[in-house]
Amino acid sequence: MWTPLLVACKGGHVEAVKRLVNSGAKIATVDKDGATPLYVASENGHAGVVAYLLEKGVDVNARKKDGWTAMMIAAKNGHVDVLKELLKHKADINAETEEGWTPLILAAFHTRFPVVKFLVSSGANVSKKNKNGMTPLHIAAANGKTDVARYLVTRKKVNIEAVNKNGVRFLAKHLKAY
User: Fold this and answer.
1) Which of 100, 106, 135, 153 could cross-link to 76 by cystine, CB 3.0-4.6 Å?
2) What's residue 170's pLDDT?
3) Where are the ANK-type repeats located (predicted)?
4) Which of these, 44, 118, 113, 51, lies nearest to 85 by C-alpha position?
5) Does domain 113-178 match CATH 1.10.630.10?
6) pLDDT digits (tens, 9 = 90+) for 118-173
7) Nearby residues of 25 by Cβ (< 8 Å), 6 or more positions away
8) Secondary structure E strands in 45-167
């Protein structure tokens, strides 16, 4: 069930969020899927609401029922300003979904190039593998995300010889395209 606080967070209405919280709205409320006000604001790119909620002490690494965090959804949806706020409050930059997808892998898959650059510059693990053994570079290359793949290839800590669970190596399969 959507509470007035969740609706205000979804809409990015900072003043309404403040009024609701000051009037006693439960900041730890969740919807039927376990989405917190922080998750909802992050999903919709509302950095001002995110900053306010974090100042109020919400759990920056809270997970929905499916295991997703605010960091993951902000990366997937391309919200760099939200990611900056989350990282200021010690969000886990390498948090994983049940399938092992990190915010960086999600950003690479969804072609969120500014997010990829921001996460890499902020210390995300560029060689972290998901449950299928796919790194952000594998994901980008295998899905035709050429700008992202080109960028990742140039990063010093990227293992361009990483092998996924099927024995596929980035170099062997994709380098010709770049």
Assistant:
1) 106
2) 64
3) 1-32, 33-65, 66-98, 99-131, 132-153
4) 51
5) no
6) 999 999 999 999 999 999 988 988 888 888 988 988 887 777 777 778 777 766 45
7) 3, 4, 5
8) none
